[in-house]
Amino acid sequence: MERPAWAPQGIDISVPSVSRIYDYYLGGSHNFEVDREAARKAMEFLPGLPKIMQANRAFMRRAVRYAVDEGLTQFLDIGSGIPTFGNVHEVAQQASPGARVAYVDHDPVAVAHSRAVLDGNPDTTVVAADLRKPQDILRSPEIGELLDLERPVALLLVAVLHFIEDVDDPYGAVAELSEALAPGSLLVVTHASFEGVPVPTGQAGGAVDVYRNEVRNPLIMRSREQITRFFQGFEVVEPGIVPMPVWRPQDPTEDEDPFTFAGYVGVGRKA
Ligand SMILES: C[S@@+](CC[C@H](N)C(=O)[O-])C[C@H]1O[C@@H](n2cnc3c(N)ncnc32)[C@H](O)[C@@H]1O
Q1: Which of 178, 116, 127, 170 is nearest to 149 (CA)?
Q2: Is any ligand 1 atom within 6 A of the Cβ of residue 110?
Q3: In what order do the strands lie in the sheet with 124-128?
């Protein structure tokens, strides 16, 4: 298979990737047939996956606007993905010109495309790092230059914690990052769960198997109680840890696709 110009040297394009599958669900063009095949296979079990991803992005944008309304102008978005329509820096800088946004991802395509999109935007940066190694993120010179950790930061962990297995201590990673944040900082989380999925759990498990066996990056479904534990040390803001459409909706939620009620989101404020 030929490697297109946007794909960095050295990436394995014979194995599907989480970020490129997500890009495909959102209608993007930074994905390969191997990604589309895995995405379509997962959709045989969970046909509403694209709706879930769209609702995730819509929540993320509402949460960024909420952070700006709360006076925050610094964003640390870990597991930021391949840029697409309505990225964090676009929403934040439209609401608050000069807002600073640091993107972090461990996927080379996400990092390369972020660099291309952010070229010429001095209030942004992108760092290749792994959420499982929070000190690499906190000690990154680029992030140190852009963000003032003495002042509140909105830490975005949007659709990424469910790719961190318990053995890699996702709770410890969030705690380490939180510790470095100033009081008044916000933690924004979205997380997959079997709760709220409008098909039997056994069927939804088929999509989880695709991530484990074909993407080789397991999708860890957690309960509301387990997701709430990520907010230790934070005061969860209203309306709490809820399904995506229920979090401060802009429009009435009656017409929402049932799949968008899968999983949980929340925003917490550091005391
Ligand atoms: C489903 S996408 C979410 C993108 C974006 N946050 C959003 O919600 O629109 C998950 C992203 O997390 C990244 N990711 C997964 N595990 C990661 C890790 N351990 N460290 C950094 N990024 C990770 C993937 O590469 C992918 O780009």
Answers
A1: 178
A2: yes
A3: 124-128, 100-105, 74-78, 154-158, 186-191, 264-270, 234-236
- Could you tell me the pLDDT band of residue 214, with boundaries at 50, 70 and 90? very high
Choosing from 84, 101, 105, 177 the residue with most ligand 1 atoms within 8 A of its CB, the one to mutate for a pocket test is 105
Is residue 112 within 6 Å of ligand 1 at its C-beta? no
- Summarised one tens digit per residue, pLDDT across range 82-119 is 998 899 999 999 999 999 999 999 999 999 999 999 99
Task: Give how far Cα 265 sits from Cα of 36, 149, 248, Å.
Answer: 26, 24, 11
pLDDT for position 244: 97
Token couple for 145: 């230059």
Measured distance CA(188)–CA(92) in Å, rounded: 14
Q: Please give the single-letter amino acid code of residue 207.
A: A
Q: What is the mean pLDDT of the chain?
A: 96
| Torsion 147-149-150-153 (CA) sign | positive
Handedness of CA 38, 50, 261, 76 (dihedral sign): positive
Mutate which of 22, 60, 160 for ligand 1? The one with the most ligand atoms within 8 Å of its CB, which is 160
